[in-house]
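Risk register update: the risk of archive-format incompatibility is retired. Evidence:
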Amino acid sequence: MVGSSNQVNEWQSMELVVQNISFDSTKHGIESSPNSACVLGNINEYDNSSSHHDLTNMGSSTPSINNILSCIKQTSTCEQDKSFEGFSPAQLNGNESHSETTTDNESEKNEFESDVDCTPLSIPNIGNITPAHSLVAFNHIEGVKFITTQELNFIDAQREKYPSIQWFTEDKQKKVKPSRHWFSKDHLWLRAVCSNSIYGLLCVDCGEFATNKTLIERSNGAFIVRSYWKLKHKGLHGIQQHQNSDLHRESRARRIAAEIVKNNGNIIGQLNCVNLENQTKKYLSVLLQTLWFIIKEEIALMKFKSFVELLHKFECPGVVEWLNLSNVKQRYWSHEATSEWLISINNYINHQQISSLKKTEFINLIIDETKDVSVKSMVCICLRYIEKENGMIKEEIFKLESIHDQSGEGIFYVVEEFIDNLQKQVGKKFVITAQTYDGAACMRFQAQGHVQSRLSAWGIYIYCRSHLLNLSVKDAIEYSFYDAFDTIKSALIFLSDNPNRLEILFNSQKLTSSSKKGHKVPKPSITRWSYSYEIVKFACHHYSAIILALSTISQSRSNGSSDGRRYVTDLMKPVVAFQIHLLRDILRPAMQFLRQIEKRGLCLDQFALNVSAARETISQAMNNFDFIKFRTTLNNIKDFSPVVTLTSHSTRLQQHTTSTDIDENELRKMGNDFVQYVLESLDNRFDAEAKEIIENLCVFSSPSNQSPEDLMNNPLIQKYTSPISYKHKGVDGKIYERTDQPLLNLKYLKDDVYAFSKITEGITTIPAILSKLAKFGSEQCPEWFRFYQILGTFAIGLNE
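Archived output:
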């Protein structure tokens, strides 16, 4: 019997944990309504490959305590007698539930003898939309897939967003069960739903991934066959009709894409996925090549759509075939899709880098700070390391982002956060063996000091030497040849700034036969090291054409004529012309040196060799200077001297002449002084620390030339087999100090030195030794392999 109201109040005050509860309904039981809630155990999610529900895997739902007690209170006040068989507070606290199905007549019982039916409780709705969890009965029919609790969450979200879609029908329909033959492997997205003892069909793909408002409202949401339709007549037809609809195709494609990203996580994985049709696979391949071309050529990403349309216009097979079949033309190349492509590419590159970092122990931080075109300060962090498996030297950009604090400590905090996140991703700690920055005070003193005193005392600072030779030449230019260099640079900018003057230069190039079509003037730049060489190379090749163009402009009596006269007067001086031609001969080996060392994986021993080669070439610049060709150039420009008026009242014109007589000995002395200053500047930029490191590295680049005793007595061996301490004082006066243990074991090095000498016999570069040790020395001389991994991290610097 139902307890009194006092008993109900007593139950309400109890702390109940209710699981697996179902109520028996009798003929005089609780009435059901279209908005009633069925309190019945939920069914766990099933594998998509299964064809039926297993009752042994059935879970349970936990209805609200307040709802249960509210129902009990309602039934206790009814005039008719109602009873709850076996219902007690003790059972509420238990984990068992009982379910008994009763029907009004025998025929209905026979029709649903395989169903686990229930009669829902009447619970007042909260809000306009009642959650589907409270409206759906989780039944079992052999071979039929019923919707799960998790899938109902998406249906609830769709019903809340589109309240006009009707869930129930007002018509009374005969109950018809779905057929198990509908739930085949071709319809993995199909689910059955039972609400108020009436069955319907749902598409879980459309319930979760449908986004097109028009198509959703037109198709009435995720419903294939709603509860008030007769499944006997509309079931299979409704399934096939829904499967061919645009809404389902779009939702199914989103489901496949989500699974591909989840399983593969990158564009390459998508292209290799067998679930994609051949047309889509071919289409994505074309799009990926197009996007990569845009990125490589530094074209604006907003042009991606234009490139795809251009490919379609020229009837690219992969694009034409797919667009003819697709209903959503911009699915993979809209603005949103472009962002997803970039994210996928970024994730793929990051995955490759993290996988590579797992193979190393020592890293070198290479950092540079610069400003982009919007004058926003950016910091670029590169890592140099060696992969243990093959001994390959890697240099990769890992971070490029804007910074707000450009002080040394501010940059350190960016580095500290980067290293911390990187170690979490890789799952191991790294040893920072070197830091490579430029000569800026915030980097050279504060940033490197904080890293070495707070992250790794082994992080030895190595001055960026990529542009060492270029800086030396720049110093020499500013010392003696600055006027000549500035004159030719300003003259070329003057010619290229105006279209009319540029056209005069092109015509002059054709007249002097220096170019048939006319070569463009190099674009000015204060950051590109190659610009200095480019302008003097252009000037020497088109010297006569430049003089002719400036002379023509000086006589035009138009805007810029006076500037043209001044430039042509200076450039016709033999000393200025000589200095420009000598600059070309000196900047050429400097430029070749820069291009040579821009190769990734280059070590300091090879850098020293390249510096020596460039130094020898520069030292012979005056011995190789072609005075015969230089005299020919001076004779040619005499004919292009500007014509000037003798006096203000004279009607006669006279050609302006400049003496072309040269003193070769004087020019040679001037040139030798300039070359000597370049070499002295180069020597001064190699400080004592740099010379010591390079000298010792050169020893280990050819270990077979040294005896085992000499190798063991090298200062670098002594350095890395002893503890190291570093103390740094910040700008705020705070002292930081760190001490790290030795990176190498002296005994192990001594034991394996003979095996190491034999394995590396005849090898003369550190990269080659690393490769050889990775193959043959990782077991026989592992400590020497570790030592060379440290040496391999020493970088030359940030390349242009």
